[in-house]
């Protein structure tokens, strides 16, 4: 991209000012570096939040909410949790600015299994909306901000475009704008390694629910084991479990791209052209963005990587995201 970088809050499609650390331009290195960099184990407070359908999600708080101070709600990626490096780096940066953070774990991604056959998927916004409404009612003087990553970014953008919500500002990192294209990209070349890594825990969790007798008869261990790529897994497991006909039906209804024009909240989207999970052809045009949305695209960054050099290897995302969320 050759666009000039305007003011930090101007909407539209822009070039990100991310510069990768020297020698770290590779998309795979950017993607993997956060997992091998040192990270502390943060002491968080667990809250179990009941859902209207008699299940529950786990919230982990880092810092107690204070009146008139923002609360930053975080939504992790596929099979992520509070130990994910991008969550830890964001929580640390936010607390340094006196901002309370809470991560909502998607069903089954926290310390404990959820109780129903259904867990979560890229377009499931009901739990997040329920959580945000509860927090808004509980802390009426605290502005609510949110940040989602990968699957959580897709979910958050879809939620923002669906209709009213209590968020004041939000950010989304590396959203799969088109889930079908993302599934196809992960089934190509070196990206197949990420696909195997992500599918393994999903299949194990599904097998566990089968042994508990929670799954319909149509989902058998053979079907679970034979799902070697996302289109197969989503077509035979994710889709049917959540009311979709097949993978294409799920992808078309759950992808956030169609919801972008309807977002009315100040929104920052960060994306890397070399993301090994994504097809760069899926990057939305400026015309697809709402007047409140700013999309910054970087040439490098990998998938939720964005590691730069600042007296050592550092996470670039938290500073950029917090500067946007705190802007007036």
Describe the model.
The protein has 328 residues and is α/β, with parallel strands linked by helices. The protein has 2 domains: 12-178 and 256-325, Rossmann fold, CATH 3.40.50.1820; 183-254, no CATH class. 34% of the residues lie in helices and 18% in strands. It is built from 10 helices and 11 strands. A 9-stranded mixed sheet has the order 1-9-8-7-6-4-5-3-2, with helices on both faces. Strands 10-11 form a two-stranded antiparallel sheet. Helix 2 packs across helix 10.
Structure at a glance:
With 328 residues, the chain is α/β, with parallel strands linked by helices.
CATH hierarchy, class of the largest domain:
Alpha Beta
| Helix segment tally | 10
Radius of gyration: 19 Å
Given helix and strand content, the structural type is alpha/beta
Which strands sit side by side, in order, in the main sheet? 1-9-8-7-6-4-5-3-2
CATH topology of the largest domain: Rossmann fold
Give the count of structural domains: 2
Proportion of residues in extended strands: 15-25%
From N to C, what is the helix and strand string? EHEEEHEHEHEHHHHHEEEEH
Low-confidence stretches: 1-7
Mean pLDDT: 95
End-to-end Cα distance, whole Å, is 27 Å
């Amino acid at each position: 991209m050759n666009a000039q970088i305007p003011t930090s809050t101007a909407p539209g499609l822009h070039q990100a000012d991310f510069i990768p650390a020297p020698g770290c331009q590779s998309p795979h290195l950017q993607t993997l570096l956060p997992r091998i960099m040192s990270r502390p184990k943060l002491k968080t407070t667990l809250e179990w939040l009941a859902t209207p359908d008699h299940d529950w999600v786990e919230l982990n708080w880092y810092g107690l909410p204070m009146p008139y101070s923002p609360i930053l709600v975080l939504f992790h990626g596929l099979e992520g949790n509070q130990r994910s490096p991008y969550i830890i780096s964001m929580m640390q940066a936010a607390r340094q600015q006196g901002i309370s953070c809470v991560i909502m774990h998607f069903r089954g991604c926290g310390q404990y299994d959820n109780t129903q056959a259904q867990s979560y998927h890229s377009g499931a916004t009901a739990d997040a909306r329920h959580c945000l409404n509860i927090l808004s009612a509980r802390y009426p003087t605290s502005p609510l901000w949110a940040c989602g990553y990968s699957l959580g970014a897709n979910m958050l953008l879809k939620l923002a475009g669906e209709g009213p919500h209590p968020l004041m500002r939000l950010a989304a990192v590396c959203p799969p704008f088109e889930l079908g294209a993302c599934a196809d990209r992960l089934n190509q070349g070196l990206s197949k390694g990420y696909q195997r890594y992500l599918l393994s825990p999903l299949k194990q969790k599904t097998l566990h629910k089968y042994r508990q007798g929670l799954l319909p008869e149509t989902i058998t261990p053979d079907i679970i084991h034979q799902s070697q790529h996302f289109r197969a897994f989503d077509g035979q497991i994710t889709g049917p479990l959540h009311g979709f006909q097949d993978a294409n039906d799920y992808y078309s209804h759950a992808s956030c791209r169609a919801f972008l024009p309807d977002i009315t909240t100040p929104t920052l989207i960060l994306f890397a052209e070399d993301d090994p999970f994504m097809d760069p052809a899926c990057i939305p045009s400026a015309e697809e963005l709402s007047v409140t949305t700013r999309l910054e695209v970087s040439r490098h960054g990998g998938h939720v990587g964005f590691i730069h050099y600042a007296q050592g290897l550092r996470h670039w995302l938290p500073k950029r995201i917090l500067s946007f969320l705190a802007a007036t």
